[in-house]
Amino acid sequence: MSAPIPSIKAGTMSAPTNISTTGTMSAPTGVTTQRRNGGKQMFRIPFILATALSLTALPAMAQAAESANPGDTAWMLISTALVFLMMPGLALFYAGMVRAKNVLSTSMHTFAALAIIGVQWVVIGYSLAFGGEGPLIGGFGNMFLNGITPGSLEGTIPTYVFVMFQGMFAIITAALISGAVAGRMKFSSYCIFILLWSTLVYDPLAHWVWGSGGWLLEMGALDFAGGTVVHLSSGLSALLLAIFLGKRHGFPHERMAPHNLPMTLLGAGLLWFGWFGFNAGSALSAGANAGLAFATTQTAAAAGALSWLLLEWRLAGKPSALGAASGIVAGLVVVTPAAGFVTPGWALVMGLMAGAVCYGGVMLKHKLGYDDSLDAFGVHGIGGAFGAVATGIFATVGATSLLTGDLHQLWIQIVGVLAAGAYAVIVTIALLWILKKTIGLRVNHDEEIIGLDQTLHSESGYDL
After folding, report:
1. Which tens digits make up the pLDDT trace of 278-337?
2. How far apart are the C-alpha atoms of 434 and 257, rounded to whole Å?
3. Own/partner pairs, 191-195, CB within 8 angstroms, 24+ separation
4. Torsion (CA) 360, 362, 364, 365 in degrees, nearest 10
5. Is 268 within 8 Å of 240 (Cβ atoms)?
6. Rounded to an integer, what distance in angstroms lies between the CA atom of residue 311 and that of residue 315?
7. What gap in Å lies between CA 265 and CA 92, rounded to an integer?
8. Can you tell me the distance from the alpha carbon of 402 to that of 440, in angstroms, rounded to the nearest whole number?
9. I need a surface site. Which of 116, 189, 239, 386 has the fewest CB within 10 A?
10. What is the DSSP letter of 185?
């Protein structure tokens, strides 16, 4: 016996009235039209179901499209850690170049920046640099990282990762300035200065060049990883600090040779290693642009070291370990704004030029008489300015330059250097003048002679 087979009509079910003895259905009189209409609706059911399923899947598809890219996220986490490693690298690099009595105080300049700017960046720095769309400054909407969640994205990576990556740049920029003040600046004044300087100089400059709506970004200025924002600004500010502080006691007549060059070489090696994250990480993805920046970074660093050594060998008679370390950093500084815009061949040219240009920049202190203790201005200020301008000459990847017949791009680069430099100089002078008139900048004569490790920190770098 066969069971009645339902038919569908307008969403309701009715049992048929006639079933043959063979178990098949026969159409009753007068219901042919109903069967035809019901058949049409039966054919519509798969289409309706497919459409419903597709609509149900749309939110999931949208969520998948908006989720972070695992490869890019992994690379940016690694890059952030690499840039962090540059901080102890910088501490070693600088500490090896000072006299033994100041090795800890010099290292403390970098680690103080890690603490102070590390907090400042979360509280207000990130918001000022990247938290809005104005031409000059971001805003206050992301103070304390307000409005950012674990699901927030910056491109293809979590916003939290982007925040931490950019925060490392802010930290090391402040720490670079300390190369001009070794052995004679009050620790309290230094701490207040880098806090104010990062807020009033670095954060606005970062927005100008990298922030949404920043006026240099809108103009078309090229700065892949911080030639203007990081190196030019810190180098010029370091020069002003050196001038405001005055020369170290005994400079230049007293011999002030580095006390531990192996420490400086180790620091240079760590800086070189971390710079792969600094430059290649600035691609903000694990793609081809990161690979290009990685290659140009390696090439320019090697070329910078080579040209510095050869020049020193020719002019001073012997190549030095300090020269090798300085040449490495010079090549890295100069290629930083161009890392993702030039080919390795032009990075080689820039690196070779970097060694010569920064060597000359370091020699300026002997001719002009200022005491840039660890050559922060000679390498970072001069190198940062030269690298930014050279980007307008050699950029051929994803950008145009003088090489491709675009003279206007070179002009934009020059405007960016002049504007960022002028702003950094004006604000830095104001900050230093205020601090000098209020709490003072320099330790007293006796403290300087004894050494800042003992007088400021009650410690000694070596207990032999």
Report:
1. 999 999 999 999 999 999 999 999 999 999 999 999 999 999 999 999 999 999 999 999
2. 33
3. 191/112, 191/116, 192/435, 192/439, 193/241, 193/431, 193/432, 193/435, 194/112, 194/113, 194/116, 194/117, 195/116, 195/117, 195/120
4. -170
5. no
6. 6
7. 8
8. 47
9. 116
10. B
